[in-house]
Structures are given as C-alpha cells and as structure tokens.
C-alpha cells in the first residue's frame, strides 16, 4: 500500500484523469477521496456516481442534467453531476459498464469541458477533475470493442492499481483505525490480539468493503468496546488456519514455532515491529528477544 500512497501524493496536484483499477471492494472510492483531499480542489465538492447502477438514459441525465419537460417526469431543471461537482472532483465509478453511446457523449464533454443538458440547447462550462474506477481490464475491453479506446486514454493519464486486501494484509491495522474512527464515534472500540491475528490471516473475499462492514457491525454489537475472537463472524472463525506462508507441516519445539510465527507476522507487516507487536500483543523488545533466542 505504500506504493499506492506514494502515487496518490504524486498525482493529487495534477489535473489529468486518474484510472483506479481493482477488484470489487478493494477501496477504489477511498483512493479517489484521498486524491481529492490532497489536491488543490480539496475545498470543492467530491461527487461520485456508480455507472453500473443506472440504465443509460438515467445515467446521462445524472451526469449532464436535463431541462424541465425534456422527458416524462422531468418536472424541473436538473443541473447534473458535472455542474454539481463544479470546482471539485467527479468520480465515475465502474466506468467500464457505461453504455457505448453514452461514452461518446462523455468523450465530447471531456474534450470541450462543456455539457448540454438533455432537452436543452445551451452549453454549460464545467471545471471538474474527473477520476474513474473499474474492476475490469478496460484496455482489453477497448481492443474487443466493448469500451472506447479514446475514452480510455482520456481518463487514464495516471493509473493506480489496487491489489486485493489478501495481498496487502499489512494494511489491515491502518484500515481498522480509519474505520473505527468513522463508525465508533464516542464509543471506543478495540480488537483483542487474538481477533487481530484472525483478521490478518483471513482471505477477505469481499476486500476492504468486507472489513469496513465488519467494523461497523462490531461497533454496534460488541459489548464494552472490546472485539474478542468469539465476536467475529462465522466465516472468519471457520477459516482460521495458517496461510501459505506459515503451515503446521511438522512437529517442532514450542520456542521454534513461536519464532516462526513471529517471523510470519513480521513479513505481513513488512518488517514493521510496531505493527507486529500490536498484532501479537507483545512489545518490540520481546519480539527482538524471541527472534534472537
């Protein structure tokens, strides 16, 4: 994740488009918000729309707006998200699911920096930085005619690839801190060491979104602000086993097993003894002593 954070810092001051790629739930919108917060547009609005959640006609109205009477149900003027995000950032989430005809209209808007509301005749200028996110391989889709290649190169001045959470387990403690701050409010919440170890070893098929849901769940249902191993969902408890980097393949002395497991946690934390100590429930000096024994 350190590489992703470095990229965020580097692309945030720019105005070019950023394409954020990753599996569903990997935190693409979190990255987009981080780019916005670090950019010169931080005081402007951040607006996000899921292109996969709306049919083409409704998505066009959401993006570009419409005038009163443009279609049945258009009882008043609607500015559209490009204008609502004026001076800020617009995230086109799951842009790969946008219909091809609408992609053509989006390309023209990005080129001209203007939108025309549905049913209207007046072009309206916008000042917005456009970010996009996808769980698809858009370049491959473009080669197969499923996505416009010219749109791809317009939105992908910069690319940020987000690995799934199972490949960046060292990020779990930091993500937990962020979600605890978001959901616990005035109610303190802490994960006991055994629970933390289980979270690090879990494969997280739902990625960051699954972790976020877990913290929200625990913030309301766990007594006294402590999350114990037994409080974790059944799917996590049922998966408890050493992962591929640490297996109980033979019988070893307890001290050797302990040292192996500490080394395993250190690898997960990229050598960060502070994070490893927090996960193991011991201090840094104890880690060093046990590794040297």
From TrEMBL:
The keyword Transcription applies. One of its GO terms (molecular function) is sequence-specific DNA binding. Gene3D superfamilies: 1.10.8.60, Homeodomain-like (1.10.10.60), P-loop containing nucleotide triphosphate hydrolases (3.40.50.300). It comes from the Bacteria. The keyword Nucleotide-binding applies. GO terms for biological process: regulation of DNA-templated transcription. Residues 1-220 form the Sigma-54 factor interaction domain. Signal peptide: none annotated. Keywords: ATP-binding, DNA-binding, Nucleotide-binding, Transcription, Transcription regulation. This is Sigma-54 factor interaction domain-containing protein.
